[in-house]
């Protein structure tokens, strides 16, 4: 990770304001975006960054955009550091960039903005659901979960809603559906970093010891929020580029898990771009008949096809494969299901996270009894497969697995 010390800067404004380019100075940046030519040279043409989504570009892509426009690569590095280490969202807070360049950048696509609408905290386990509003006024949700040992895990959304249509998931009921940009995915992490920094959750050893919001980042990231990550493949991979960049957020890929309902055609591509991130398969049924009823994706990608895609991956003892298995009373919690699940896990070297169904208003399924859950887990373990019973966090605030539905909860920010 870069050890360059950042220039002194003013403290970040409150989260609700930190994303908006505003004020007279920011408005003035839109005038005459051209760089001065060297003495004796012909004046340069105005730089055109219109339509460039600066916040969504990995560092190499950002450098390429600058070089294409005749700018030195180090200027791209300065902007990248400002966006993803200092996490500023106002160009006038980057005085290291020439005014003429800031003027040119001001006509690019707006920098990503997510406004925290509400942030209820679970009374059961301390999980915090962040209800976030996009620039286009859609609502997404992310969940910050305290873990044993003082670690924190952030559950990220990759889409507004989800078109996978899983019958047991509240997100599938949302009428508005679109992909998030890479910048909007990354911005969820930035929001949490700023929020935690304001609350004093700062630790050392991040980006060469740089003080600021990056030093308050969570330890783990899981792409298990709203949406199907591999249905938004390019944006998710670009976001992973930014999040794992040593000169950006600096997350180890071993601290990141990407979940999928089973888009087999994307598995090899994800491995090619990010071979060391962990993978979770939202399986939830062990026969095609049951899975097709629960998860329509299975009609095009039956279980055997997804198994084939996973078997084709190079074995890596440090890359974890997890089966996410939501237990639904009387649907997929029988002894035969346990036996088939154990055999699949052993065959693929996967660990099983069994999650008793988290009920949401209008849900067509019920949670199994504690005795049935315990018996299911014991049978899987007896067969020789690794299994953990996972109680999802934030159940009392609608933040648990399958409950994220873009609904504001009762407790406002502040």
How would you describe the overall organization of this protein?
With 414 residues, the chain is an alpha/beta fold. It folds into 2 domains: 15-36 and 45-105, no CATH class; 114-397, TIM Barrel, CATH 3.20.20.70. It has 12 helices and 12 strands. α3 (59-68) crosses α4 (73-84), α6 (182-198) packs across α7 (233-244) and α11 packs across α12.
Strand content: 5-15%
CATH architecture of the largest domain: Alpha-Beta Barrel
Task: Give the overall pLDDT as a whole number.
Answer: 84
> In sequence order, what are the helices and strands, one letter per element?
HHHHHEEEEEEHEHEHEHHEHEHE
CATH class of the largest domain: Alpha Beta
In short:
This protein is α/β, with parallel strands linked by helices.
List the helices and strands and how they pair.
Layout: H1 15-18, H2 23-28, H3 59-68, H4 73-84, H5 99-105, E1 114-118, E2 128-134, E3 139-146, E4 152-155, E5 159-160, E6 178-179, H6 182-198, E7 220-223, H7 233-244, E8 256-260, H8 267-273, E9 278-282, H9 288-294, H10 303-311, E10 321-327, H11 335-348, E11 351-356, H12 370-382, E12 387-389
Parallel strand pairs: 4-7, 7-8, 8-9, 9-10, 10-11, 11-12
Antiparallel strand pairs: 1-2, 2-3, 3-4, 5-6
Helix pairs in contact: 3-4, 6-7, 11-12
């Amino acid at each position: 990770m870069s050890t360059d010390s950042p220039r002194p800067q003013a403290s970040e404004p409150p989260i609700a304001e930190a994303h908006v380019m505003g004020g007279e100075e920011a408005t003035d940046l839109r005038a005459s975006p051209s760089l001065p030519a060297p003495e004796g040279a012909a004046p340069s043409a105005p730089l055109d960054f219109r339509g460039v989504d600066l916040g969504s570009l990995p560092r190499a892509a950002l450098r390429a955009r600058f070089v294409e426009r005749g700018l030195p690569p180090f200027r791209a590095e300065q902007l990248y550091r400002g966006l993803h280490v200092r996490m500023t969202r106002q160009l006038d807070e980057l005085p290291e960039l020439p005014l003429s360049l800031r003027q040119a950048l001001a006509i690019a696509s707006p920098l990503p903005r997510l406004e925290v609408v509400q942030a209820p905290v679970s009374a059961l386990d301390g999980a915090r659901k962040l209800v976030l509003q996009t620039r286009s006024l859609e609502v997404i949700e992310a969940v910050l979960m305290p873990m044993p040992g003082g670690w924190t895990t952030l559950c990220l959304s990759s889409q507004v809603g989800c078109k996978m249509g899983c019958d047991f998931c509240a997100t599938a009921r949302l009428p508005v559906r679109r992909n998030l940009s890479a910048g909007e995915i990354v911005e969820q992490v930035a929001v949490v970093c700023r929020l935690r920094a304001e609350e004093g959750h700062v630790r050392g050893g991040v980006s060469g010891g740089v003080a600021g919001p990056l030093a308050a980042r969570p330890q783990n990231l899981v792409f298990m929020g709203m949406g199907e990550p591999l249905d938004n493949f390019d944006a998710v991979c670009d976001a992973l580029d930014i999040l794992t960049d040593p000169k950006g957020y600096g997350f180890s890929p071993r601290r990141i898990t990407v979940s999928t309902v089973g888009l087999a055609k994307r598995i090899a591509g994800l491995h090619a771009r990010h071979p060391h991130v962990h993978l979770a398969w939202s399986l939830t049924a062990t026969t095609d008949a049951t899975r097709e009823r629960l998860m329509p994706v299975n009609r095009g990608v039956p279980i055997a096809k997804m198994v084939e895609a996973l078997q084709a991956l190079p074995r890596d003892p440090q890359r974890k494969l997890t089966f996410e298995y939501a237990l639904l009373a009387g649907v997929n919690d029988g002894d035969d299901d346990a036996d088939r699940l154990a055999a699949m896990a052993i065959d693929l070297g996967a660990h099983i996270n069994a999650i008793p169904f988290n009920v949401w208003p209008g849900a067509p399924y019920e949670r199994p009894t504690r005795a049935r859950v315990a018996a299911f887990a014991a049978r899987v373990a007896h067969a020789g497969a690794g299994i953990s019973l996972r109680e999802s966090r934030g159940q009392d605030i609608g933040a648990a697995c399958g409950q994220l539905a873009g609904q504001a909860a009762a407790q406002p920010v502040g």
